[in-house]
TrEMBL record:
Keywords: Membrane, Transcription, Transcription regulation, Transmembrane, Transmembrane helix. The keyword Nucleus does not apply. The chain crosses the membrane at residues 95-116. It comes from the Bacteria. InterPro entries: Anti_sigma_zinc_sf, Znf_put. Residues 14-41 form the Putative zinc-finger domain. This is Anti-sigma factor family protein. The keyword Transmembrane applies. It comes from Streptomyces aureoversilis.
Length: 247
């Protein structure tokens, strides 16, 4: 009778399960373990996201006539390196988001006002977003229907693409998001923001105060590589398309 594998052994079977080299009995045992183990579920999610490496591994694996197919050790090394890089990027991005949230909690409305302030100090959120905007590859459009002026600034990263946005000639109140659309149709939200009643980048608009004349600068990231992105869409959260920037 087959005895169940010890729990510590099942923790090490994530890679073998993802690569499909476990036999039916071991795979069934691992799936039972996976249902109650968040650690293995997270590791499996990381591995399954490395599609190009797994595709290479599939191509190099022996054919069905082999009695005990095993992946190439070099490809396993590449897979391990890929998982390490992915986790490092995810940790870095999570830390950045936590730091940004902490800044908003501590600084409150001052930081919020700085997002559209042309006179903000160097350490403010707008200065960082503007600098990131200046440093990237810029692609812009003025939508013929809405007249919204949107320019994205792109920087390739190990984890995907950093995206800064300059937005003007938009009236509020609105709640919006910037969506990256892949060439395969995949959609990923880059960032969200609120447009106050006075709007952003509206020359000659005195109703919203001096800030309404300034454009919005904001930034975020997409897991898509720069070469895999087809376009960016600026939308309201209720579905209205404000601008499309084709890249």
């Amino acid at each position: 009778m087959n005895r169940p594998a010890p729990d510590h052994e099942q923790h090490t079977e994530v890679g073998a399960y993802a690569l499909g080299v476990l036999d039916a009995a071991d795979a069934a045992r691992f799936e039972e373990h996976l249902a109650g183990c968040p650690r293995c579920a997270a590791e499996l999610d990381d591995l399954m996201g490395l599609t190009p490496l797994l595709a290479d591994l599939k191509e190099s694996a022996p054919g069905p006539e082999a009695l005990a197919p095993r992946p190439d050790p070099a490809l396993l090394d590449r897979l391990l390196a890929g998982v390490t890089a992915t986790r490092r990027a995810q940790r870095t991005r999570r830390l950045c988001l936590v730091a940004a949230a902490a800044a908003l909690i501590v600084a409150g409305p001052l930081v919020g006002a700085a997002v559209f302030s042309g006179e903000a100090p160097d350490h403010s959120g707008v200065s960082a977003a503007k600098q990131m905007y200046e440093d990237g590859e810029k692609i812009g459009v003025v939508d013929p229907a809405t007249k919204v002026d949107a320019t994205v600034s792109l920087q390739p990263k190990a984890w995907g693409t950093h995206v800064a946005l300059r937005l003007s000639h938009v009236r509020g109140p609105l709640t919006c998001d910037l969506v990256a659309v892949g060439k395969d149709g995949e959609r990923q939200t880059v960032t969200t923001w609120a447009v106050p009643p006075g709007g952003y980048g509206l020359e000659g608009n005195d109703k919203g105060g001096k800030w309404s004349k300034e454009p919005l600068y904001t930034h975020g990231g997409a897991a898509l590589n720069r070469s895999d992105i087809s376009r960016f869409e600026v939308r309201t959260l209720d579905g209205k398309l404000l601008a499309t920037v084709k890249v």
